[in-house]
């Protein structure tokens, strides 16, 4: 088992990082986790509420420099509480800031971002590869479409006719094709499921290969479409999705 947990935005102040990790370890009943990642590059006001808002319902954001938060993650690694440290939802400019930080001890091993056929992240993927950072894909099948996060009128990725045609040609499900597409590009896809049959099917992703023609066809589905835009963070100068990649 490879166990990952995340540092939420309300714990970005350096003095809160290790206590937050220790709280997670206590819940998990573990001495360490394999990977600990910053959830977003945007800090929020600390407190008991995961999504703090003012009287007008606007997010209460903080001014912590995520490079200072990163240094606190490095200390967690040195303390043996985590094997590797990484980030999530960072754009290339924000990754560059960490990589060029004076006194950097450990660079991020991964950047976990929304990535799927409609948002294939080719430029960010190429950048991460050039820096030896693994791109990890969440929403690999077009997200779970939870009502509180995703516009229910947005397109259903697994119903895409081009994807379904490629699936039929390869005698596989659209979900397997969507996962294999990411895998062949050097992306680590996360496929969330609570159903045993789907979990078993997902493991078949290692049993076949897509042809160069199929890969090119699937490349053509990219729309730079984001299901999860994290709109609650848009007012912060470090909101990551204003950049192209």
UniProtKB/TrEMBL annotation:
Keywords for the protein's UniProt record, in alphabetical order: NADP, Oxidoreductase
Binding site for substrate: 39
Ranges of residues in domain NADP-dependent oxidoreductase: 1-222
Superkingdom classification of source: Eukaryota
Annotated site residues (Lowers pKa of active site Tyr) in this chain: 6
Listed SUPFAM superfamilies: NAD(P)-linked oxidoreductase
InterPro entries referenced in this protein's UniProt entry, alphabetically: AKR (IPR020471), Aldo/ket_reductase_CS (IPR018170), NAD(P)_OxRdtase_dom_sf (IPR036812), NADP_OxRdtase_dom (IPR023210)
Molecular function terms from GO: oxidoreductase activity
Family in the record: Belongs to the aldo/keto reductase family.
Full protein name: NADP-dependent oxidoreductase domain-containing protein
């Amino acid at each position: 088992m490879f166990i990952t947990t995340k540092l939420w935005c309300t714990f970005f102040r350096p003095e809160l990082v290790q206590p937050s990790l220790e709280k997670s370890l206590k819940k998990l009943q573990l001495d360490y986790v394999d990977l600990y990642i910053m959830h977003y590059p945007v800090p929020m006001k600390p407190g008991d509420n995961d999504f703090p808002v003012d009287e007008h319902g606007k997010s209460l954001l903080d001014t912590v420099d995520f490079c200072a938060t990163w240094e606190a993650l490095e200390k967690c690694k040195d303390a043996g509480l985590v094997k590797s440290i990484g980030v999530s939802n960072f754009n290339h400019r924000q990754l560059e800031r960490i990589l060029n930080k004076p006194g950097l001890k450990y660079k991020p091993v991964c950047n976990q971002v929304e990535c799927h056929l409609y948002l294939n992240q080719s430029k960010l993927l190429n950048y991460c590869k050039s820096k030896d950072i693994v791109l990890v894909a969440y929403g690999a099948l077009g997200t779970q479409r939870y009502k509180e996060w995703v516009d229910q009128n947005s397109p259903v990725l697994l119903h895409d006719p081009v994807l379904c045609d490629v699936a039929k040609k390869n005698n596989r499900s659209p979900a397997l094709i969507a996962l294999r597409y990411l895998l062949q590009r050097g992306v680590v896809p996360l496929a969330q499921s609570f159903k045993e049959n789907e979990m078993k099917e997902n493991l078949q992703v290692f049993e076949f290969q897509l042809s160069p023609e199929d890969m090119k066809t699937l490349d053509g589905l990219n729309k730079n479409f984001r299901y999860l835009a994290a709109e609650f963070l848009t007012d912060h100068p470090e909101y990551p999705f204003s950049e192209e990649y």
